[in-house]
Amino acid sequence: MKKWECTVCGYIHAGDEPPGECPVCAADKSRFVEVVEEQILAETIKGPEETPQPQPATSPPSLRTKIYRMAAAVTVRHHLHPIMVHTPNGIIPMALVFLLISVLFGAPFFEMAAFFSLIFVLILMPKVLFTGYVMWQQRYQGARTPIFKIKISASIVALVLLLALIIWRAVQPDIIASASTGQWIFWAGVALLVCAVGIAGHLGGKLVFGARKD
Question: What's phi and psi for 4, nearest 5 deg?
């Protein structure tokens, strides 16, 4: 039986034909290539010996390009995005639990802890988004399939909500304790923030752990 590999996410499909759509990243059938035996692949890559051809001269890359390439290489080699993304995925739900404890048990310390936790996540969000962008470009060729569109949209929503909630809490420190319509809106924003990071994290896990299933 033949095997086909998705060139976007690396999913392996067994069958006479590639699937119409990748079940992991939703790439279409044209993005699949047949997986050949290692010895055949080695022969194909090696091929007949050829005289090396001179490469055309190109202008040296700018300092900005050099810095980006260096950062991208480090990000991919050391898997920095999976490391960085655990920060919002872990701390934001924790902040929600702290807020609930502060309301249920009248413990303002936990509300303050939740506030500073959100600030900590906001400080690290640029690194989370940058490493995510690098992985999208380097490993997934910048594919614009539905899974990537949803993941990117969820990340943007999370960033906007995070910034808005922090500013709101800084301007109105008693927003959690005050019985008002604003309090319910604030709670809704926190719940939506948790959902946004949860969706982004779930889709990221699907790309990583679902890519090698037959």
Answer: -125, 135
Q: Give the residue among 90, 91, 95 at the shortest CA–CA distance from 189.
A: 95
The rounded distance, in Å, linking the Cα atoms of 188 and 100 is 13
Decide: residue 172, CB within 10 A, 0-12 exposed, 13-18 middle, 19+ buried.
middle
Token pair 């999913």 is at which residue?
Answer: 11
Dihedral over Cα of 177, 182, 188, 194: its sign? negative
Give the β-pairing of 3-6 and 12-14. Answer: antiparallel
Q: How many CB atoms lie within 10 A of CB 112?
A: 14
Q: What is the pLDDT along the chain (214 residues), one digit of tens a residue?
A: 788 889 888 888 888 899 999 988 988 888 999 887 654 445 444 544 555 566 666 778 888 888 988 999 999 899 899 899 999 999 999 999 999 999 999 999 999 999 999 999 999 999 999 999 999 999 999 999 999 999 999 999 999 999 999 999 999 999 998 888 999 999 999 999 999 999 999 999 998 887 655 4
Alpha-carbon distance values, 129 to 22, 25, 75, 108, 135 (Å): 25, 19, 12, 32, 10
In the DSSP assignment, the letter for residue 21 is B
- At 75, list the tokens: 């990000």
